[in-house]
Design goal:
The protein is of the alpha+beta class. Strands 1-2-3-4-5-6 form a six-stranded antiparallel beta sheet. Helix content is 34%, strand content 35%. It contains two helices and six strands. It has helices at 2-27, 45-69, and strands spanning 35-37, 84-97, 99-110, 113-124, 129-137, 146-147. The relative contact order is 0.15. The longest helix has 26 residues, at 2-27.
Length: 150
C-alpha cells in the first residue's frame, strides 16, 4: 500500500510540475529559455520589489562578510565598499527556466554616489521562493561583487 501511495504522490508531483511549467510559458508568452524584455519596468511592482530584494540580499551578504572578517567599521576606500540604498529598477528581462529568472539593471546609491548594478534573481512562485544568483556593478569588465549562490 505504501509503494502505491508513494508512486501516486510522485506522479502527482511530476504532473503538477509540468502543468506549472506549461502555465508559466502560456502566461508569460515566452519559450522556455528565451529572454523577453519587460516593457513596464518602472510601474511593475513585482520587478521593483525584486530589485529591492536584490539590494537587501547584497547588503545582508556584505554584513556577513564584514562579520567574518571582523570589521566593525568600513571606510569608503575599503575593498568591500558600503551598503547600497535601492533607488529603482531601470531595465529588466525575464526568462522562463525552472521558474522565472529575472535579469535586472538597478539604480542604487553607495556611499552617497549613484551607481548602476546588474542582478539575476530566480523566482519559483509555486514554492514561494526567490533566490539572488548574482549581483554586481553594471560594467562588463567588473567582477561580481557577490555570488550569492554558494
Amino acid at each position: 500500500m505504501a509503494i502505491i501511495r508513494s508512486q501516486t504522490v510522485t506522479l502527482a508531483t511530476i504532473t503538477l510540475t509540468l502543468l506549472i511549467s506549461l502555465q508559466l510559458c502560456v502566461c508569460y508568452r515566452g519559450k522556455v529559455g528565451a529572454k523577453t524584455e519587460i516593457s513596464d519596468v518602472k510601474t511593475n511592482e513585482e520587478v521593483q520589489e525584486l530589485g529591492s530584494f536584490s539590494v537587501e540580499e547584497y547588503n545582508r551578504s556584505l554584513r556577513r562578510q564584514r562579520r567574518q572578517r571582523q570589521y566593525k567599521t568600513m571606510s569608503i576606500g575599503d575593498n568591500i565598499g558600503g551598503e547600497l540604498r535601492f533607488m529603482e529598477v531601470v531595465e529588466a528581462q525575464r526568462q522562463v527556466v525552472s521558474g522565472l529568472k529575472y535579469y535586472l539593471t538597478i539604480s542604487a546609491t553607495q556611499n552617497g554616489v549613484s551607481k548602476m548594478f546588474e542582478s539575476e534573481v530566480v523566482v519559483k512562485p509555486w514554492v514561494r521562493s526567490k533566490e539572488l544568483l548574482n549581483f554586481g556593478p553594471s560594467n562588463s569588465t567588473s567582477q561580481y561583487l557577490s555570488s550569492c549562490c554558494n
